[in-house]
Amino acid sequence: MVRRRPQYSAEFRAEAVRRARSSDESLLSIARELGVSHASLRNWVAAARPKPETPLSDDERSELKKLRKENRELRMEREILKKATAFFAKQSE
Description:
Radius of gyration: 18 Å
Helix content: over 70%
Number of domains: 2
Number of strands: 0
Number of helices: 4
CATH architecture of the largest domain: Orthogonal Bundle
Structural class: mainly alpha
Largest sheet: none
CATH class of the largest domain: Mainly Alpha
Distance between the termini: 62 Å
Strand content: under 5%
C-alpha cells in the first residue's frame, strides 16, 4: 500500500506560518497542535521568508544567528518573569 502525504491548502499553510511568526511557542509545539510534521512547518516558514536582495556575508550570517538565539532566550526569560510576577502577586494577596 502506497502512503500518500497529506495535502494542505494554501490558506492553512499561510495561517500556520503567521502563527509560527507571531507566537512565542516553539515550532514543534505549534506543529503538534496543528497536526502537521515539524519539518513541514519549518519548511513553510523558511519558504515564506523574503529572499534577501544581496547575500549575507559570513559575519552577518553568524551575527544574525547569534541575535536570533538571544531573542529566543530573552522571550523565554520574559515569559518566566511574567509567571513569577503573577505567582508572587497571588501570594501577596
